[in-house]
Amino acid sequence: MVTIAYFAWVRERMGTAEEQVVLPATVVDVAELVVWLAARDERGALAFAEQACRAQSMA
Questions:
Q1: What gap in Å lies between CA 18 and CA 33, rounded to an integer?
Q2: Is 43 within 8 Å of 15 (Cβ atoms)?
Q3: Where are the alpha helices (DSSP H) in the chain?
Q4: Which of 4, 7, 19, 36 has minimal Cβ neighbours within 10 Å of its Cβ?
Q5: Residue 21 in contact with residue 6, Cβ under 8 Å?
Q6: pTM beyond 0.70
């Protein structure tokens, strides 16, 4: 289990300052965490819809 802390407008869109979640095995980096949070529910979709907060993989 991990604790995720949200700040500023992400906190407002998520409706909470932090939450504890059990991550699926497929979440191995920040980019996958953002994808998972966005797909999980409407709050996450709204909070992580903007490109500015999406993690970009460095190839």
A1: 15
A2: yes
A3: 8-14, 30-40, 42-47
A4: 7
A5: no
A6: yes
